[in-house]
Description:
Order of helices and strands: HHHEEE
Helix content: 25-40%
Largest sheet: 3 strands, antiparallel
Number of strands: 3
Strand content: 15-25%
Amino acid sequence: MVYVKNFPDERWGGRKKALVQAKQYRDSLLESLPPPLSRREFCDVLRSNNRSEITGVYRYAKSYQLQNGTIKKTSYWEASGPSGKANRPTRRSK
């Protein structure tokens, strides 16, 4: 769930006062919510569209056209997981 609340400058008497109100709202919201999931916990959640029934593993299929006009199809399983960085390591198997 995403929580959104606006703090217009005009309503709160200026930009700085609106910012103070926004920060107070954010802090009180964080105190009332359970702690966020770790990266590992988030990745371990089985998504409803997952057909392999294994988190981080999915079937990848694509088709492409060769220069002679032939359509080539390929498919493989792809496994991915968190690396602790912005990009994720990926391992592909045909």
